Amino acid sequence: MVIDAHVDALIFDMDGTLWDATASYAEIWNRCFYESGMTRRVDSDELMKYMGQPIASIVKGITGNCLDDEKMKSFIDRLGILEDEMMPMLGGKPFAGLNEGLAKLSKYYRLFMLSNCGIDGLPNFMRYTGTEDYFSGYVSYGDRPMPKGDNMKYLMAKYGLGSAVYVGDTQGDCDETHRAGIPFVYAKYGFGDCRDYDMSFDSFTAIVDYFVNLKKD
């Protein structure tokens, strides 16, 4: 797929693309395990392997699919409550140049976020990083529990996007982006691997430089 100056919107994944919050997620998960009477514990490296997947898939992978449907729902519900309570304080580590880069990009493109996180994940990110003013809209799995490709189509239709690209860091992101019919930009500095991206970059600042220069040329 071609990525050229006709691009008018950039849609960003959150985890592994804009920031690293795995240490905070691990703290939240371990609190949830403790409250649920489970001895299981996770660290950021283990959680990193599951980033980008829907929450039910992550829970099944980490717990070894040992929870029945009722316990699964209870665990996910409690995890969501704890994340809403704890993430505004814990936050994550934005990748270098995040705020400056988004400010530059927003002069030339409409910026959006799309993630498989819970309903408050993206608003919490924007408040914590002070980036609310740079984004024109967002959608998460918590808002609309559909695969990313469907939510990309929804976002593009809702905001009338003519030529958008998705920026993410996993093969799943890539597959869903191509299913939505738009180019995929691979953030190689993130958490996952990808084999059939349309473009790749080693840092967030490199993404910014490329797309800003695309409009200047």
Q: Care to describe what's here?
A:
By secondary structure, the chain is α/β, with parallel strands linked by helices. It has two domains: 9-20 and 94-216, Rossmann fold (3-Layer(aba) Sandwich); 22-90, DNA polymerase, domain 1, CATH 1.10.150. Helices cover 47% and strands 15% of the residues. It is built from nine helices and eight strands. It has a six-stranded parallel beta sheet with strand order 5-4-1-6-7-8, with helices on both faces. The longest helix has 22 residues, at 69-90. The radius of gyration is 17 Å and the shape is globular.
Tell me the number of strands: 8
CATH topology of the largest domain: Rossmann fold
Query: In what range is the share of β-strand residues?
Result: 5-15%
CATH A-level architecture of the largest domain: 3-Layer(aba) Sandwich
Individual helix count: 9
List the quaternary state of the chains: single chain
Superfamily at the CATH H level of the largest domain? Answer: HAD superfamily/HAD-like
**Mean pLDDT over the residues:** 93
List the secondary-structure elements in sequence, H or E. EEHHHHEHEHEHEHEEH
